[in-house]
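Typical record is below.
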Amino acid sequence: MKVEAIDYGDRRVFSVGAFNRGIASWLSRLPTVWVEGEVTELRRQARWASVFFTLKDPADGACLGVSMPRGQFDGLRLDLADGDRVHVYGRPELFEPKGEFRLRALSLERFGLGEHLAALERLKQKLAAEGLFAPERKRPLPLLPKRIGLVTGNDAAAKRDVITALTTRFPPARVLVAETYVQGPRAPGAIVETLGALCREPDVEVIVVARGGGSFEDLLPFSDERLVRAIANCPVPVVSAVGHEQDTPLCDLAADARASTPSVAARLVVPDLAELVQRLDRARSSLERGTRRALDRERQRLDRTHERLGRAPRLLLERRRGRLDQAAARLTALSPRATLERGYAIVRRAGGIVRSGNAVTSGEAVDVELAEGGFGARVEETR
């Protein structure tokens, strides 16, 4: 389409559409080139015909928008992620409806590891060697924290998500919010300072560091060495809730717990009040049943003891009576009267019982005792 200007006297004026078409036509005459940079802000949707990302110069931060047909991008199977360094082959173009300048990619090749990723990998290895990421350093989170510190950005969605989730799960939760920079070069120092200030607040027993999703560059402050060391050395447990599930800044590795999103952090920090009440009700019911069973067992044991104690005197009397009867039987069997009843007699004289014939003389009077009665006699003969 021909680009024409409108004459206003001695002034030639182009409409926005005409201007954009002219620039686009001029850019289309430029040759194809190779451009090197790091991939950031990669955006790919199944319904989109193209894949979009930003190509960033790690040296000075200069950025260039890039688009590539989705089928062609998927066919390369590069599995690119933010921070990967690539060589892009394409030609410059202008998206006329919005006047956006970008590079139309015709080919794409991976080229080494991005500078930021390489630096992060070196820092990660260094801190890991010092033991900052060791599992044994992780501290358990308090079950019912008296006060919860929240480090977040000003008017951030992450702040709203965390507070809403906390108050929904556990309405009595006390939250102390500390807003600070969470993006840009000033963020690491500001977050470290805010973290230290929260630790000095009374009753703060756990701290949540929260930030919503963002580009690779947006989350770089949370991999800063100063912040990672501050989290590892924090006197109270720290929950890192930075970015989304696929994001893994170094603060995630140093924190005592990692939440995939700010909302998930709330589920780690406080229990669900309704579930807690149900658990307490079940525990109370279990204690009541256990107490009743214990009382029933003790009552039965006391009843058995009482019954045994009631039977004990009778049993004792019966045993004593049995022994007395046995003793009486033995005494009866040994009694002289029992001997008399068998037909024997006891002969007495003035000196006592006569036990031999030599103890008496002829003509001596004796007394004879029988089983029933007795009689007097006189000795006529001794043998």
The chain has a mean pLDDT of 86. The CA atoms of residues 206 and 237 lie 5 Å apart. The two ends are 178 Å apart (CA to CA).
